[in-house]
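[Backbone geometry]
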Amino acid sequence: MASGCTGPHGHLSRLFLSLLLGVLRPAVHYVEGRTLLLHRTVSSLCSNADHQQADWVGVHERICQMLVSIRSMKDIYDPAVRKRNQLRKTHLIKICKLVAQSKLSEGKHEEALHAAHCCLQTSIDLYGPNTIQLVPAYILLAEANMGLGNLAVVAELLSQAEWAVLKNPELGASVQQQLHRSLGHYHTSVGNLEIALHHFSNDIYFACEEYGLDSSATTKGYFLIADVFARQGRTAIVHSLYSEVAERWHNHLNSLLETHQQHADSSVSFYEKAQRVEMEEMLRVILEFEQKQSRRDAALIALIAHNLAMLWFINGDLHKAQDFGSTALQASLQIPKHKLTEPIQELLQQVESLQTEPQPGSD
């Protein structure tokens, strides 16, 4: 084992790697005649302390127990035991996907890489190589590598995913949406902006097909198209697209706020956490863009800031909710009888009420 596997969790990292390598076999795939090694060796996975720590934070705490259970039963041929083991692998794949998506939304690409890699290897172990079920894992690995600047690896992974999708045209819209989004990200990174626009348009198309025309699932596609147009200096189109994104999030957040007020103590899933991080990033970028314009659109600024105020209120950060609520109110008051003024004031009153409530143990 590499000497880098030392530190506070070194023995656990070695345990994790031995479990992973004991359960999941190395896999080599071929992409149009080129060999793509998708399985990392132990030494590369654990090459230094930083890498080991990322491995621990990203994956260990979620899946070590499942790997122990899977490995303990891998040589048992009783049909009932094998069926239970397959169910555990299916659950492990789901957990790894959620962890990878959550880490990607937080910009923690090194941690996402390990979760995505485990997702791929478990998928190969369960479904076999060169199967359509591997596509989501290829996409997650591509996104993680993109964040780390490994664009050659990204191109190979997305080629493998594209080839699998081409062989299975009946594949669901959700996976095709994810693939086009990743392809759009890749082509944006390498400067192929027109190709990126094509893929982001397909992202929106498949999102509409899967979730409906008015779904908030389409917002990221519009946002990414706006980013490409911003790179091309087409500000008017960017403004129009940002307005669409803000309106869709406003509808979604109003619904979330209502649910939150009814069930304030409800837990937040991995998916919801990742979605909220992504939502906050989009809205923050849009607000900064609009505030920098020489001719500000007060109505749009009020809408975006109200979105952010609702989001932070739901997340429990009353200080940020108040800050963005004040920004929203200031903008809405510039427009006589603006429809958002009253909802913004009501939200600020709720924030103030919660801030003045006596805290437990303060007596």
